[in-house]
Amino acid sequence: MLAEEQIPGALQACRGTFKRDLLLAMRRSGDIVNPLVFALIVVTLFPLGIGPEKSTLTAIAPGLVWVVALLACLLSVDRVFRDDYLDGTLQQMLLSPQPSYFLVLAKVTVHWLVSGLAVTLVAPLLALMLSLAGGGYLPLLVSLLLGTVSLSMIGAIGAALTVGLKRGGVLVALIVLPLYVPVLIFGAGAVEAGCQGLPYSGHLAILAALTLMALVLAPLAIGGALRINMDD
Amino acid sequence: MYFSSLNELFYMDGHGVYVWAVYAVAISIIAALAITPLVRRRRFVREETQRLRREGKV
Amino acid sequence: MAFRWPQFFHKLGSPRWFYRIGGLWLPWLAGIAACFLVIGAIWGLAFAPEDFKQGNSYRIIFVHVPSAFIALAGYYVMATAGAISLIWKMKLADIALKCAAPIGAAMTVLALISGATWGKPTWGTWWVWDARNTSMLVLLFLYLGIYALYNAFEREEQAARICAVLALVGTVNIPIIYKSVDWWFTLHQPATIKLTEPTTMHASMWQPLLLMIVGFYVLYTTLLIERIRVEILVRERRTRWVQDIVLASGA
Fold first, then answer.
1. Highest mean pLDDT range out of A208-217, B47-56, C199-208?
2. Is residue B53 part of a domain?
3. What span, in angstroms and rounded, lies between the C-alpha atoms of C239 and C233?
4. Contact present, A and C (at least 3 Cβ pairs less than 8 Å)
5. CATH code of the domain containing C66
6. Structural domains of chain C, count
7. Residue B29 lies in a domain
8. Which of A182, A198, B29, C15 pairs with C50 at a CA distance of 20 to 30 A?
9. Is residue C45 within 8 angstroms of chain A, CB to CB?
10. Lowest model confidence (mean pLDDT) among B5-19, C35-49, C100-114, C214-228
11. Is residue C188 part of a domain?
């Protein structure tokens, strides 16, 4: 039994969870690489499906890269809480004296690092394959950097809701995809505007606002959903 | 009435098909919503009566 | 006798009380809904003047707009029931959440079908990615998500509370989705003819529309109460009072 002053504070616990999750994620590097390969393959399928004509590809590239990136982020999201739920770690986390808000935030941040951030870094390559117009690269990077944070947050809500179920997979996609709509609209909108040489800072500002809102509110929903899944 | 004859009311300058189709769909959806609980209730009463009889509670 | 809120609230949580009171209200509500809808539909179909730009196809508005209203309002009803269920763990709220989902989804389907059918004579195609159609489609997906999630759980109580969280998340998101779809639409397609806005909304047009909207709200209430009452019977089947009802109506 720890004395009162020995119990780690919220931020300390947050940092501990972050380190632990990151270490676990790094050890399973397949989980990081697989969604990226998936994105590459999907992008390859499009020219095969609609023809290799450059002008067609350039026209649809902004939306397409965004949709592919979004799906790649979705692929791994139902694993965020699954393993910890199965081995009981999650229960201990929720029982711990630290607010679950920060623990959840740490877990989702790690997920973002290995999915959203990774996809963002690969996105220019995807854009190149679809011959995105030159002005679109910078807004693509920035919009994905901002947008994938809220994608991870919203996706984690879906993961938390279904954590107690034996099969989450498709259900998570079904729940989460409609909620992705605003992020997709403003993300792809920014890239589209950049391609046409129009200002895109407005899109990015709205994306940033969405992301901030997700950061503040989503951990509350996630914590609630996890608790409901816990009591049996 | 806005239309001069019943025929015209049904035809509506060629738009009648669409308008009447929508009203038909609306009626069938509302009817389905109203009837499903009634069917469920009837089935429940039948099954429960059987169960209560079986358990000798009647 | 003074009306006492806490007591009223407490009673509302009692399925038995709701079953009785709902049963008393149901015929009246159904009658009122039928009156409003029949009068509104006849007025809208046969007596309202024609829109000079869209012609007679605008008469679909009398179904499309009310069903779209109910589709959206139904989601909020569901989310409110969910919030009550999460905060006070009220049995009746769980039941209301479960029963509100299919009605809302059906109304969304009706709004989509009427919107598409309206599009055919107006734009020449069944489906146009118009702002209203698109956000209705997303709303339908939100309903389907709730439905799928509810059915994935075995314990009803847990299913209701999980769906309550999702419904609340959806509630926060719906205004954002609507706004962003609206913005997306104005960016990509300069509006030609907007559905749901007859070029001149004369009083003889919006009066039947108002009747239909009120009628749809009362209809929604009727259908919801009807569904909740049946669900109450099924859930409370072990209680004495339900068994009495069953035996009385089964004989």
1. A208-217
2. yes
3. 9
4. yes
5. 1.20.120
6. 1
7. no
8. B29
9. no
10. B5-19
11. yes
